[in-house]
Amino acid sequence: MTSATRMGVLALLWGSGFLWIKISLQQGLTPGWITFVRCLLGAAVLLALAYGAGQRLPRDRTTWRRLAVAAFFCNALPFLLFSVGEQTVDSGVAGVLNATTPLWALLIGLGTGTDRPLHPARLGGLVLGFAGVLLIFAPWSAGSGLMSLGALALLGASASYAVAFAYMARRLTGRGTAPLALSAAQLFTATGLSVPALATGGSAGVTWAGVLAVVVLGVFATGLTFHLNYRMIAEEGPTSAATVGYLLPVVSVALGALVLDEPLSARVVTGMAVVLVGVALTRWTTGAAAAAGGGAAVKEAASTAGAADAAPEARGTGRPRVVSAPAAGEETGAPC
User: Fold this and answer.
1) Which residue(s) pair with 181 in the sheet?
2) How far apart are CA 76 and CA 260, in angstroms?
3) Rounded CA separation 118/144 (Å)
4) In a designed cystine with 139, which of 98, 146, 187, 191 is the match (CB 3.0 to 4.6 A)?
5) 94, 158, 170: which is closest to 328 by C-alpha?
6) 113-120: long-range contacts, CB 8 A cutoff, minimum separation 24
7) C-alpha to C-alpha distance for 253 and 267, rounded to whole angstroms
8) What residues contact residue 48 under an 8 Å CB cut-off, 6+ apart?
9) Reported pTM
10) Are 190 and 76 in contact (CB under 8 A)?
11) Who's near 165: CB < 8 A, 6+ residues apart?
12) Dist CA 291 CA 314 (whole Å)
């Protein structure tokens, strides 16, 4: 499989997750059940892959305690929030808002003092990214739904990913546990954490189409996508894998329009483009900043993707460059 083909398959599988969530909801499944089954099936796939690769789950209590925190913020909570959000918001829009995770991550890094200085390009990217979100929801229009429960849930899910990535980079990655096993253990833990959400509503009217949709969501759009992403990181480096993150909103918007007949307005498409440009600018470094912080940025992106040893140290070249950091779901390599 060529690099372009693998990237296309990964983007299609990963970006289709929002479509499968919407179909599951339309066919009678509740957000709680979608979250639980998605975690359960994704964990089963990763456990099988880890076993086949000879990777063993962590055994120390400290790692499992940390996995519980990561599983909550990276899987159980955002999976639930995306399902809640898509009850009232189109799947394509959900995919676009998923791409705002790096913007939240930058705000968290600046707030905690762990991110590098905010030079003009990155500040412009931050402002531009959130301006794109405003453009999508158009608060100046009547009934825009900007402050609806669904919209806030989707933004909360993206912010939750950012919290998880910051925590995982500090507490989980680069500590000796093989990446497949670590992610399998994380989704296994998330399955347990999502059990209470099952009490939020019944699923008596579930159709076979809903069952099929959530199975595809768990097996392919969660478990298998991690495996493909991990392979891409290991074989081609984190930069190629990170590129997929910029394709996910495009895939989600296209599938929503083609399969679910969701409106594809010029405002939403423009807002998506603005968000992606903003995200790209927030990853920009220049000259000395690249020399001082670029290597750490790339190493962190690779290590939090579960493949720290796969990425070489970045070296400053004295010229502007873009440091590609994984977009939503890619900073950890886990099926977030």
Assistant:
1) none
2) 26
3) 32
4) 146
5) 158
6) 114/166, 116/285, 116/289, 116/292, 116/293, 116/297, 117/289, 119/286, 119/289
7) 12
8) none
9) 0.83
10) yes
11) 74, 101, 105, 304, 331, 332
12) 8
Q: Any idea which residue has 């790096």 for tokens?
A: 102
DSSP sequence for 5-61: HHHHHHHHHHHTHHHHHHHHHHTT--HHHHHHHHHHHHHHHHHHHHHHTTPPPP-SH
How many angstroms separate the CA atoms of 306 and 82, rounded?
24
Both tokens assigned to 3: 């690099």
Q: Which two tokens stand for residue 246?
A: 């910029």
Q: Are 238 and 311 in contact (CB under 8 A)?
A: yes
